[in-house]
Design goal:
The structure is a homodimer of 366-residue chains.
Chain A (H helix, E strand, L loop, with lengths): L6 H27 L3 H11 L21 H16 L6 H26 L3 E2 L2 E2 L1 H5 L1 H20 L8 H28 L7 H25 L4 H28 L2 H4 L5 H4 L5 H7 L4 H10 L7 H13 L2 H23 L10 H15 L3
Antiparallel strand pairs in A: 1-2
């Protein structure tokens, strides 16, 4: 793990600067568009404003319902691109877009938890655990619809119709990509041979495509498609390093910091990057991995410990972290391309904050 | 059952006129927007173009994957409104909208079957039965995204951006309404007391809102919001009579004609209109109904037969069919309001075809 010495330390202040604005807008959108108290409560529970009886919590008692990293990415990309254009950013223009991205992300999390059978997220029972899978499918569908509607709110902020249409079309394409990526993720669980390349293609669709959309859309609201292109590239690279780091944390993270049960990815034999790497190798450890992963049962606690050991021995974690680093480097190159003056990322504090996000994605411990 | 003597007989020719055009456009949209063969196959299976191994079937071997009634409704509303404006209809303008409505409807069916645990639709295993619930959630999400993207295709047909935005916003609102209606439907299963009015409010959101959107949007692409308003009202009334008739068929229909297991609605104690009516009554039969429906188990075959008898004795089927008729009358009044010359529905063959649809919704046996 190299580079980004300020990264992981500074991310709280970077994200924190936008958090309240995003939370307030999320709550305002849901309050305006959903007239049913139960549905508002269910969405509020997932987003952290409501308790498990779906009663609204006062701001002081709310829990973490995600970092809102994707919203911050959209806002920062807009600010950075506006700054490069020599104009003053007006966050009111981009906020509906950032909120739409968070609503969309929330929809995918609610469905993803059902699909993976996950019962904990952010240290709390998942929505499906609280209200059952049928209702959770439904709440996810409602969040998906709210995200689409929220893009339309850009019209009220003076954004021209063709840009609104382009972003709506892009959201649809992103959602199709995500569904295909999710299919590959589910299908990989049944496949004995998943190459590293196919794995990277899957997370590109499943995870990176939404961060790409967030960064591209934010920049697109400040500048034309050509100037927004490096931000799209940044979003993709950020998403890949973020997901690969997630895979590493899924193996080595503790429940206290990740909010998810430790070791679950291994016991469920999830095909994360370190595992895919180890399964594809020629060492005796890879043979043992393949025989453990060929059976149609979850791994025992002893086998989980053995897999950790095997992954260590073949250098799978180091390989994965190096891959995260590759995309970190790619992200920084994209930021340099976004800057008017080459290598002048530090001159634009928003580009600099995006760099902190990239550092965080690659190095984070939570 | 009164009125509409030509209705149910003629509906095949009304729907048949649009069917091939809609099927072709659906397939073209999916082929263009989805680059993954599995996902295309899964969507194709649900829509009737692929077998249960998701292999594309030649046109001659395809099965029924829905009547495409909602697409036909959108196309007919457009034609009727264009005709009233004294212009010639150009179906190329409205087709992307009609296809979007069918894609959206398909998304809701895939998720609805999962939520209800239904294993048969159109006489075939549901998508969730074929590929499992996790993947079916995913395919439904993909269809939802494709529907949104498909509305955006209206731009390529010369529709002005503000109309495209208005229809996209309306789709989002429709989807939120539908999710709330679906929540009420699921919640009613746990509630002992559901009034007829609450039931009608639920189906208004869950079923009628999409038919309203189809009819309104079709007309809106031909004329301004004021002239499209009677079509919205027609769609709502059509949706209500269609759903209430569905409830009646769910009790009295056979698997051969409905494509769903006979008696399933009763055995699962679904709160359909005849049941809601009977449960709310004061007769001894209603007491017996309440005691049968208070238990947390499915009904036996004997109890199913008893419930049929009880529903008959309290006149629940007749009550429901009368309710369908109320909305049929309302639908015809909306058509009269849509005609430039009062009571001149017959002078516009598209309005006349919409009347056949209304007759079908109220009287259909499949």
């Amino acid at each position: 793990v190299t580079a980004g010495v300020r990264g992981a330390r500074d991310v709280d202040s970077v994200l924190g600067a936008y958090r309240l604005m995003v939370e307030n807008d999320l709550e305002a959108v849901v309050a305006e568009a959903v007239d049913d108290a139960w549905m508002r409560g269910a969405i509020g529970y997932h987003l952290g404003w409501a308790d498990d009886a779906f009663r609204r919590l006062p701001p002081g008692e709310r829990v973490v319902g995600g970092k809102r990293m994707r919203a911050a990415l959209a806002l920062l990309a807009y600010e950075a691109a506006t700054h490069e254009e020599g104009r003053d950013p007006d966050l009111g223009v981009v906020l509906p877009f950032a909120t739409a991205v968070e609503l969309f992300h929330s929809f995918t999390l609610v469905h993803d938890d059902l699909q993976d059978g996950d019962r904990l997220r952010w240290g709390r029972p998942t929505l499906g655990t609280v209200c059952g899978p049928a209702e959770a499918i439904n709440v996810g569908d409602c969040l998906h619809a709210l995200a689409t509607g929220c893009i339309g709110r850009l019209r009220t902020r003076g954004v021209d119709p063709s840009t609104v249409d382009a972003l709506t079309a892009e959201l649809s394409r992103t959602a199709v990509e995500l569904a295909v990526g999710q299919h590959h993720d589910l299908a990989f669980e049944e496949e004995a041979h998943v190459s590293v390349d196919r794995y990277l293609g899957m997370i590109c669709r499943k995870t990176a495509t939404l961060l790409r959309f967030a960064a591209y859309g934010g920049a697109r609201l400040a500048a034309g498609p050509a100037k927004a292109a490096p931000y799209a590239e940044f979003g993709t690279a950020l998403g890949l390093s973020f997901q690969i780091r997630d895979d590493v944390l899924g193996i080595w993270g503790t429940e206290a910091v990740t909010g998810k049960p430790a070791g679950r990815d291994i016991r469920r034999k999830k095909k994360t990057l370190p595992v895919v790497f180890a399964l594809a190798g020629g060492a005796p450890q890879s043979d043992r991995m393949r025989s453990l992963y060929a059976r149609h049962i979850e791994l025992s606690a002893e086998e989980e410990a053995e897999v950790r050991q095997l992954l260590d021995e073949v250098g799978a974690i180091a390989f994965a972290q190096d891959q995260a680093q590759v995309h970190h480097t790619r992200a920084l190159a994209a930021l340099a391309a976004a800057a008017r003056v080459p290598d002048a990322v530090e001159a634009n504090r928003y580009l600099s904050d995006l760099r902190h996000l990239a550092d965080f994605a690659t190095e984070r411990r939570f």
